[in-house]
C-alpha cells in the first residue's frame, strides 16, 4: 500500500540496530518512501549533506555520538538546516524531549513505536519543515 506523496520522498533512517533499521526500512518503503540507512552519526551527517532527504528519523542512542549532537550539527549547517528531524528513542523522559525539540526536532517518538501513527505523521512533519 503506497500512502506517501506521489512526488518521491526520502527518509534518512539513522539506527544502529540492523534489525530495527531493516524493520523500519520495510515499513517506510511499503508506505511509498525512499529510504537511506545509516548506523552512525557520522554516516548520517554525510548522507544528509550529500542526498538532502526530506526527513531524518534519528535514533538518539548512536555508537559514535549522541543523536542530540547530530541534530545540532544538521540544524547548524545551512545545507541541512531545513530538513525535518524526528527523534526516535527508548527514553520517555520529559527533559530529553524538551532538549530534542529545543535543538530543532520536529517530534520526539518513544519506542516501541506506533508504526501506523508514525507513517501517518511523516507528511505533516515534512511539510512543517518545508514551510519553516
Compact description:
The protein is α/β, with parallel strands linked by helices and 132 residues long.
Overall description:
46% of the residues lie in helices and 19% in strands. It has 132 residues and is an alpha/beta fold. The chain has one domain (10-131): Rossmann fold, CATH 3.40.50. Strands 2-1-3-4-5 form a five-stranded parallel beta sheet, with helices on both faces. Strand 3, helix 3 and strand 4 (84-89) form a beta-alpha-beta unit. Helix 2 (41-51) runs parallel beside helix 3 (67-76). The protein is globular, with a radius of gyration of 13 Å. Residues 1-6 have low confidence and may be disordered.
Distance between the termini: 30 Å
Q: Kindly report the name of the CATH homologous superfamily.
A: Response regulator
CATH architecture: 3-Layer(aba) Sandwich
State Rg: 13 Å
Which strand order does the major sheet show?
2-1-3-4-5
> What is the CATH C level class, in words?
Alpha Beta
Structural class: alpha/beta
In CATH, the topology is named Rossmann fold
- The number of domains is 1
Q: How does the overall form come out from the CA principal axes?
A: globular
Amino acid at each position: 500500500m503506497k500512502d506517501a506523496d506521489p512526488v518521491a520522498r526520502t527518509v534518512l533512517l539513522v539506527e544502529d540496530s540492523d534489525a530495527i533499521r531493516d524493520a523500519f526500512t520495510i515499513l517506510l518503503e511499503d508506505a511509498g518512501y525512499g529510504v537511506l540507512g545509516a548506523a552512525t552519526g557520522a554516516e548520517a551527517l554525510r548522507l544528509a549533506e550529500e542526498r538532502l532527504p526530506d526527513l531524518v528519523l534519528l535514533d538518539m542512542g548512536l555508537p559514535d555520538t549522541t543523536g542530540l549532537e547530530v541534530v545540532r550539527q544538521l540544524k547548524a549547517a545551512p545545507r541541512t538546516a531545513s530538513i525535518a528531524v524526528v527523534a526516535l528513542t527508548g527514553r520517555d523522559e520529559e527533559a530529553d524531549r524538551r532538549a530534542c525539540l529545543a535543538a530543532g526536532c520536529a517530534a520526539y517518538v518513544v519506542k516501541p513505536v506506533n508504526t501506523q501513527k508514525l507513517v501517518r505523521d511523516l507528511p505533516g512533519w515534512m511539510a512543517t519543515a518545508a514551510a519553516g
